Amino acid sequence: MKAFKYLSPTTVEEAIAFHGRHSETAKYIGGGTDVIVKVKEGWMEPDYLISLKKIEEMSELHKNDATGELSIGAMVTHATLEKSLMIRNEYPIIYDAVSNIGSLQVRNVGTIGGNLINAVPSADGAIPLIALDGVALLHGPDGERSVEVKDLFIAPYKTVLKPREILKKITIPPQEPHTGSAYIKFGRRAAMELPLIGIGVLLTLDDDDTCAKARICLGVAAPTPMRAFDAENFLVGKKIDENILIEAGKIAADESKVRDSIRGKAWHRKEMIRVHVRRMGLKCLNMIKDNY
Known about the structure:
By secondary structure, the protein is α+β, with helices and mostly antiparallel strands. The chain is 35% helix and 24% strand.
């Protein structure tokens, strides 16, 4: 492993300044569950690693009681989200996703920001944030800008971040009443496994029980995490029942861009989308009924 220097800024501005001084020889590091592996195996050879751990504002998890907006710092760990009763009770789709990422040891140090910035098609953390209409706040030499999480990804391992930019936090707008959300990671085993497919569903019902909003988000179904817009549009305005969800699952499966790989066949992934859109939809309906 190539030797490197480890820098520990305490503000976002200081981190960006460090990166500017050391240019392409520097790399930001959060929890390090991916970066350190790449450095050890020689896939990455930085002269400087700029740690974001001491930037306190990036480790904050906070819900504004006045506005209902949720703020998740990019350095918030998966374990912090998993252990939060507020997340578990009010944002179950996030809990479902982070509680199945890696091992307990990985969740203790791995961060939600790192999960997004890695931009792998199988990133569990991306699906709930897309379903919840999350917005990523990026900070760079030219100041701050906002990007919807669904638009953060360009290709596998590539995001819209510009050189020296940092993903600072993710904000989630207030949830509407009568909303349920759920995520399932389908793989060969329950943990320590990349998903063969990841499916997140969010439903909001009007007072007359018709669907006011639908989100169907898929991981490992395309080069980047995706929304099944046709399936979502099919659900809006309809009374949701099992038959309607079965049809939505078929539409979502047809929308997906799954392919054969060494880990699974495209036809099998399509079948899992079809089945689990229905199952997650029914789970959302049960949540809404329980909270009425």
